[in-house]
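input
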Amino acid sequence: MERRGFLLWRLGLLVLTLMDGSFATLSPSGINYEVVALMAIKNGLNDPYTVLENWDINSVDPCSWRMITCTLDGYVSALGLPSQSLSGTLSPWIGNLSNLQSVLLQNNAILSAIPAEIGKLEMLQTLDLSNNKFSGEIPTSLGNLKNLNYLRLNNNSLTGPIPESLSKIEVLTLVDLSFNNLSNSVPKISARTFKLTGNPLICGPNSKYNCSVYPEPLSFPPDAETESGKKNHRVAFVFGASFGSALLIIVIIGSLVWWRYRHNKQIFFDVNDQYDPEVCLGHLKRYTFKELRAATDHFNVKNILGKGGFGIVYKGSLNDGTTVAVKRLKDFNGVGGEIQFQTEVEMISLAVHRNLLRLWGFCTTENERILVYPYMPNGSVASRLRDHIHGKPVLDWSRRKRIALGTARGLLYLHEQCDPRIIHRDVKAANILLDEDFEAVVGDFGLAKLLDPHDSHVTTTVRGTVGHIAPEYLSTGQSSEKTDVFGFGILLLELITGKKALEFGRAANQNQRGVMLDWVKKLHQEGKLNVLVDKDLKGKFDRVELEEMVKVALLCTQFNSSQRPKMSEVLRLLEGEGLAEKWEASQNVETPRYLRSFEYPPERYADFIEESSLTLEAMELSGPR
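output
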């Protein structure tokens, strides 16, 4: 309590320092005003799992803090704290983060009123406060958010009228106010999806309002060539919930797609996959093909950063000088091609974390599907493992340990904190990117799902990279979060050895490549861990950390997926918590059912590759940036 009081006192002094009318990033005393605002938010929240532990009032730069995303010029652009068991109140100081574009606080237990100061965030495009305990009225100031696309306030305890001011926001895509206690009349809000169900004072038996979803038309963006001088036409179809109606919708959509392609026009519309169809694309920038073609010098081969199974990544420079990575997708016209693109945009745009690659924007034309990401100046882990500066490896031991921790945090977010939760299915060094500070950034999550958009994680074709694919995925075609844990274990071995998963050691015969995991197990049993370590490190590594990291890798790569730890546990193990106990318990494991199908259960990982009954399409889903 004394420390909390001291922090509040210090915060008060900083507030007085900043209330001199200066709007510069730093106060006269050198304190970042965004740090002050974030610390006020932290102090108002109860944080039982210390996810905000590294938020530090003495910091000048909050961009390295967990759950924070910044713009290239260092301003806080996204606050992502979904599903963190947070309670307490949301501080009005959030209104001082003037560059915020996204606020994701869903699935917590925050119980204050919604601060009216949020209405000051003129750049805000996504606001999700759903599934909390917010009470009081919806602030009328939210109507000032002229760029707001995505508003979810559902499943709270909000009361009073729906502000008329919301009808002034012209770019709204989704508004969900369902399951509150709102009352009075409903203003005309021009959102494609508007939900009111669960508000008994509005949606009673004799309600004049459609309390499910309204209006929700299929909308087509105007063509760039014909936008001027033509009206936007919006077509809305309302059908019952019967099977016949659903089939009719599918037929109509298919007809529209065919007609638009025959008339050489762009098409991009929401497709209801197994994910929540409430897709917001407004907080992403929509680029023109001409703009991206110019940025990449007509997709010049000299600008290629990497090639993968789903497209080519180019380095590009936008008109404002911003350097970007432009992923030009291929084969989108195949089965489910439109759905594939929609799925990646939907999934990636909602995943916001310091250790995840942020999707900036997209381009769609009749012939192209392109995604735009921030450029990662230090490429991928795979590319930098072999680089040297002045005879020393770019990735020394401490950096490799940091990369392991950052990757674990990114995967933890995908598995346990993101909504919807995402399985990567191709975790490897080539897909872990490095920013300017050599911080790990997990890239290409969602690509495996893109390739099989209707797959419920069970497939007859295994996709991934040989040497990184989990045994149960090879044997049954079934993937899960534990599939990623296996891939992470192989990544740890890549960091330790500096080698690829299939080039470790010498194979028994010249026609078979050595498999890293089998060699590591053998050398670990023989107590020859020093032999594993990348020779480029020249013995400069922590031997205790080496043993710990090898044990974590072996725990992650156990053949029995149920015995592998979850990523939240992996992170704790990497930090040294409970590793000895977990390792001891792992020495007695039962053979899983899918292994018993073999007459002689495989002792080596290589045996799974050779004996897999599935079609193996080991492919690079994406190369290094």
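quick obs: The longest strand covers residues 311-317.
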